[in-house]
Design brief:
The structure is a single chain. By secondary structure, the protein is mostly helical. The chain is 84% helix and 0% strand. It contains two helices and no strands. Helix 1 runs parallel beside helix 2. The N and C termini lie far apart (110 Å).
């Protein structure tokens, strides 16, 4: 076997398991690995696309986390608003209920 072929086989036997390991990490929820691409063959193209996919996933996670933070802030403001509105409505409603009970008792 020629030295070039042995080199290609060695590269292939190192690259494919590395891609497999990174795929397992993604499946486990780890999107922060770094795929190093050192050649220009089909395996390196696959590794390059894998790297781009991980970058896109990280960006989408960042956007989701930002929107989740904004949603939590809006929910907290909503809760404060309704608590304040309920507090402000209590005295007039209590007065109206009192008058309604007096009218009901006296006919």
């Amino acid at each position: 076997m020629a030295a070039a072929q042995r080199g290609e086989i060695a590269y292939f036997t190192k690259s494919v398991p590395r891609l497999s390991k990174n795929s397992q990490q993604v499946y486990a929820g780890d999107y922060n690995m770094d795929m190093r691409v050192s050649s220009r063959d089909e395996i390196s193209e696959l590794a390059g696309m894998f790297k781009k996919m991980m970058q896109r996933i990280r960006e989408q996670i960042r956007i989701i986390e930002q929107k989740r933070g904004a949603l939590k802030k809006a929910q907290a403001q909503n809760k404060v608003f309704f608590a304040n509105a309920a507090h402000e409505m209590n005295p007039p409603l209590t007065t109206l209920i009192g008058y309604a009970q007096i009218i009901k008792k006296k006919g």
